[in-house]
Amino acid sequence: MTRPSSWSRPVWTLFGLLVAYYAFPVEWAGAAPVIVALSIAGTVGGVVLVGTMMARELGSVRRGEPGRGLRGLSMLLILLVMAASLTFFLINEASPDEFAGLGTRTDALYFTLTTMTTVGFGDVHAEGQLARALVCLLIVFNVVVVASLVRAYTTRGQNQG
């Protein structure tokens, strides 16, 4: 029996989160019950897949299997991106004046990724105070976490060499 690729869990985590993200029911009013049920089923299925992959990854880390830290961190980063994207999308649905240029879930994902990578093209941007506060938190988190991770991995590499 062959072992799955070492990166299969992060890939399955990404897939599960994308399913949950795009299936998450936002509009209940006027939607056909079948559509709402399918949306909920897709969301639950995606979340169950993510939970399973995370539990397996944590089990690997607890057993002390080598090289699991980077894959676990990548899974958490994927989770953060998707959670931030859904948060921005839902805020925009509740108050359309909070963001300019954000109309779809893909716009929200695009905005999150451009913000986290500090590219920030400006075509989608925060305008409201709540949106700006959350974007500031995401930027600070990103800078602190990425800087800490880079330092931890470069320090570990120097200590092993």
Keywords for this entry:
mainly alpha; 5 helices; 73% helix; flat
In short:
By secondary structure, the chain is an all-alpha fold. It has five helices and two strands.
How would you describe this structure to a colleague?
By secondary structure, this protein is mostly helical. It has one domain: Helix Hairpins (Orthogonal Bundle). 73% of the residues lie in helices and 2% in strands. It contains five helices and two strands; from the N terminus they run αααβαβα. A two-stranded antiparallel sheet has the order 1-2. Helix 1 packs parallel to helix 3. The chain is flat and about 55 Å long. The two termini are 35 Å apart. The relative contact order is 0.09.
Task: Tell me, rounded to a whole number, the average pLDDT.
Answer: 85
Q: Main sheet? A: 2 strands, antiparallel
Per CATH, the class reads: Mainly Alpha
Look at the helices and sheets and give the structural class.
Answer: mainly alpha
Biggest sheet strand order reads 1-2
**Poorly predicted ranges (pLDDT <50, ≥5 residues)?**
none
- Gyration radius, rounded: 18 Å
CATH architectural arrangement: Orthogonal Bundle
**Quick one: how many beta strands?**
2
Termini separation comes to 35 Å
What is the fold-level CATH name, i.e. the topology? Answer: Helix Hairpins
- The domain tally reads 1
Estimate the strand proportion.
under 5%
What percent of the residues sit in helical stretches (DSSP H or I)?
over 70%
Order of helices and strands: HHHEHEH
Total helices: the number is: 5
Specify the overall morphology: flat
